[in-house]
Amino acid sequence: MRAIRVASAALLGVxxxxxxxxxxxxxxxxNITPFGFSVMxxxxxxxxxVTLQLDRDSGGCTGSATVSSGVFDTITIxxxxxxxxxxxxxxxxxxxxxxxxFSCNGVSGSTDLTIATGRTTPTTQPLYPDRGVHAGEGGSVxxxxxxxxxxGAALIxxxxxxxxxxxxxxxxxxxx
Length: 176
Fold this sequence. Notes:
By secondary structure, the chain is of the alpha+beta class. The protein folds into two domains: about 1-20 and about 145-170; about 30-145, Macroglobulin (MG2) domain (Immunoglobulin-like), CATH 2.60.40.1930. Helices cover about 25% and strands about 30% of the residues. The protein has a five-stranded mixed β-sheet with strand order 2-8-7-4-5, with no helix packed on it. The longest helix is centred in the last third of the chain and has 23 residues, at about 145-170. The two termini are about 15 Å apart. Mean pLDDT is about 75; it is low at about 25-30.
C-alpha cells in the first residue's frame, strides 16, 4: 500500500516539474536572444504605425539597439528607452510578410510583420508615450529568470519531499 502512495507522489512531482518548464527552453531553439522583443501590432495596413518593443528588464540588451525591416526605415532605440515607433511604407504589398530584425550587443533576433489589406490615414501623434508605466509586460517568454526557475524547482522538490514524508509516517492505528 505504501508503494502506491510513494509512486503516486513521485509521479505527481515529476509531472508538475515537467509542466512547469519555461516556454523558452521547451521551444527547442529557434529565435532565442538574451533580450525580448516584439512588434505591436503584428498585422498592420500600409501607412500604419507600429511600436517596436524591446525588453531590457532581463539585462540582455544594455546599449542602443537597431531595428530594421524592408518595410520601414532603420530605427535606433537608445539605451535609455524600451520602445520606438515606425511608420510602415505606403507601398508595402498587402498580404506580404516582412521580417523585422532587432540587433543589440552583437546579437540579432527577428519576428514577422504582416501587411493587411486596406490603408490607414497617416498619424502624427505617437501611439504610446515616451515614458510611463510598463503595464502589461508580464507573462512574456523573454523573461527567462534562473532565480525564479530555481525557486520553482525548490518548491516542487519540497512538495514531493513532504508527500513522501507523510506517506511514510506511521499512524497510531498501524499497531507499531
